[in-house]
Structures are given as C-alpha cells and as structure tokens.
Specification:
single chain, mainly alpha, two-stranded antiparallel ribbon, 7% strand
C-alpha cells in the first residue's frame, strides 16, 4: 500500500510494523523483501540494506523478490541499481509485440507474480 496509495495508510504505524518484521528472526524472505520495499516507499533509509540483501542473498532470491527489491531501490532514487536488477533478468524478459512479461518461474502464478513485480519496477 505504501508504494501505490501511501495516503491510505498511517505511515508511522506501517513503518513500525515493517521494522518489526525485519527484526523478527522468523520472518520469511518474502516478508523481508516486502518490508524493505514498504520502508523504501515510506522514505526510510534502507538503501544499503536493500543493496546488501541483493549482494549477499541474490542467488537465493526469486526473480520477483529481486524485482521488488529493485523497486525499493527506485523508490529511494537509485535508478542505476534498479536498472541493474531489471537487466540482471536478461533473457527472462519476453516481448511479443506490445506485450511484455517475465518468463521466469515454472507455473503461471510464478510468471504473473514476476511480471507484476517487473511492472512495479518500470
């Protein structure tokens, strides 16, 4: 919500919740990724945290997770880093006429999630 409709959410409460998720050792990678994206959208100083997560855990992140982190970079003004994340998918980005989608992922649900994440980044 902080990314697309920040006016509909209490920013202070959202930031506290997301920081709590990051502090919780039981948080899943998806929860951590989305927490960083939300904090970035709230203008919180998480640029280095996102960059470190991409560097240290990049091989274990899904394409959608990488794209969401890239969107976080863009939210914070690091368009070069965001572009690098987008470009790192290489051949996984497919264009058919005016339609573009992310081929990565075995199931249709994976491809839809990856494409949605890519749209958020662009």
């Amino acid at each position: 919500m902080l990314v697309v409709a920040p006016e509909l959410i209490n920013k202070a409460d959202a930031v506290a919740f997301l920081r709590g998720k990051l502090a919780d050792a039981a948080s899943t990678p998806d929860e951590r990724v989305m927490s960083y994206l939300g904090l970035a959208a709230a203008g919180e100083p998480v640029l280095l945290d996102i960059t470190r997560m991409l560097e240290r855990e990049g091989d274990s992140l899904t394409p959608a997770q990488k794209l969401y982190l890239g969107a976080g970079l863009a939210q914070l003004g690091d368009f070069t880093g965001a572009d690098a994340v987008y470009e790192s998918l290489g051949g996984q980005l497919v264009s058919e006429g005016t339609v573009k989608y992310v081929e990565a992922g075995g199931s249709l649900d994976d491809r839809i999630q990856n494409t949605a994440a890519a749209l958020l980044l662009t």
